[in-house]
Amino acid sequence: xxxxxxxxxxxxxxxxxxxxxxxxxxxxxxxxxxxxxxxxxxxxxxxxxxxxxxxxxxxxxxxxxxxxxxxxxxxxxxxxxxxxxxxxxxxxxxxxxxxxxxxxxxxxxxxxxxxxxxxxxxxxxxxxxxxxxxxxxxxxxxxxxxxxxxxxxxxxxxxxxxxxxxxxxxxxxxxxxxxxxxxxxxxxxxxxxxxxxxxxxxxxxxxxxx
Length: 210
Known about the structure:
Layout: H1 2-25, E1 28-39, E2 54-63, E3 68-82, E4 86-89, E5 95-98, E6 100-115, E7 125-144, E8 147-169, E9 175-185, E10 187-190, E11 193-195, E12 198-208
Antiparallel strand pairs: 1-2, 1-12, 2-3, 3-6, 4-5, 6-7, 7-8, 8-9, 9-12, 10-11
């Protein structure tokens, strides 16, 4: 009987004592970054080559171990380019003299894994490398003057490799700042454009939720 009571006491200690500690050892964080994007590859060939300063990244992450983190990432980026006035063929018999503008918006939703080589006990500045993969909602509009000439929304594959660093702030370390870069691969195959690949630089903040 005493043995059973001892086992129950130990189980209760594990459930109500150790579990909260474990939850603290595996924090959930929310990240929000400003993103600057540089088109590369096929995207820059007569489509959109202008850099985009209109973007953000958000993510929710969970620390599996002191070195490995998993989570979900989402974002938004707005690309735009205007070309000089020229004559365009609207069909076989009609032409129009107009300024052509290409407008492209991307909304990625991805699963993410991250490796952090150093521990928080070793340094306040923690470098990391990351991989992410998922889907990319692409919305494209082409305008001749003020009139929409082509419009299409597609769902495409997207993969991303990145690196960066974070620095915790405050006495508790529940929040901090971060900065990094990434390379994105995103096949497209529309309007003569094979891909929407791009390089990115981002910076922002994170908050520990748990």
